[in-house]
Write a structure and sequence with these properties.
CATH topology of the largest domain: Immunoglobulin-like
CATH class of the largest domain: Mainly Beta
Distance between the termini: 104 Å
CATH superfamily of the largest domain: Carboxypeptidase-like, regulatory domain
Radius of gyration: 28 Å
Largest sheet: 5 strands, antiparallel
Strand order of the largest sheet: 12-11-14-15-17
Shape: elongated
Length: 271
């Protein structure tokens, strides 16, 4: 009888030791998760929140400072603010360290690159250290495209652009005027239409140019290769030719990252 009591006592002690050990392990694991993440709550202003429905997605993105593409992306669905969030090491296959900028936007059609009616976003935050807790992120504006500073960073990255110089053939120099615009387009041969578009005003030939992912049309993810076309536009209608307009087309399809392109406006634009 006494032996049974001892065994029973040892079993209870062993159980509590294992329970305490499991709790400590779980606390350590939770603390490690907190230290490797940014967490808090997503809210919305009355105006921004009016268009959000429960079936919307929320896209959470972490950007390393100075970069233009997210290091980590997480989707919350269903999404209806206010809601808590947690993003970090658990959402990334690569190790994370340091601080990241957070961007959150709502999505209705499964394509976070293409703005749609009723979608909203917040600001691109200042860098937040991993381990940040109780951070309040506010959705406060319509989503009409990614923040300008991200687009500018993409414009400065040679790997995401096609770069070169535009000039005009001597025989057509007198057809270029100070009121003209240069319209630069990337055409997708598979789609048969332009997928990126940029306009240069107040230019001076020869003129350096770049066109790439920052100039993509809504919902288009540029991969390439593309046909490059440049038009001197006089009437504000680049798809309708006007007397005196000129055009040049690349002789081959160009991948993103192409540099040193020298294109000369040497044909009259007729459409």
């Amino acid at each position: 009888m006494r032996r049974n009591r001892l065994l029973y006592t040892f079993a209870i002690i062993a159980f509590f030791i294992l329970l305490v050990y499991a709790l400590i392990r779980e606390m350590d694991r939770n603390q490690a998760q907190i230290n490797g993440s940014i967490s808090g709550i997503i809210t919305a202003t009355r105006a921004a929140g009016a268009g959000i429905v429960k079936t919307d997605n929320a896209y959470l993105m972490l950007f390393e400072p100075g970069t233009s593409y997210p290091t980590v992306t997480k989707v919350i669905n269903p999404f209806l603010p206010p809601t808590t969030f947690f993003i970090g090491q658990g959402d990334s296959a690569a190790p994370l360290k340091g601080a990241y900028r957070l961007l959150v936007l709502s999505d209705k059609d499964g394509n976070p690159d293409r703005p749609a009616l009723g979608e909203v976003m917040g600001e691109l935050t200042a860098p937040l250290k991993l381990g940040t807790e109780a951070f309040e992120y506010v959705l406060d504006r319509p989503f009409q495209g990614f923040p300008k500073e991200l687009l500018e960073a993409r414009r400065k990255d040679p790997a995401m652009n096609i770069l070169g110089t535009i000039d005009v053939s001597p025989e057509f120099k007198d057809q270029i005027s100070a009121e003209d615009r240069l319209v630069i387009m990337l055409f997708d041969p598979k789609l048969g239409r332009p997928v990126a578009f940029r306009i240069l005003e107040n230019f001076s030939l020869p003129q350096d140019f770049s066109i790439g992912v920052a100039d993509a049309m809504p919902g288009i993810q540029l991969k390439g290769p593309y046909s490059l076309r440049i038009i001197s536009d006089k009437n504000g209608q680049p798809f309708e030719s006007a007397p005196g307009e000129l055009i040049v087309r690349s002789k081959k399809l160009l991948p993103l990252g192409s540099q040193g392109m020298n294109l000369v406006l040497d044909q009259e634009y007729q459409r």
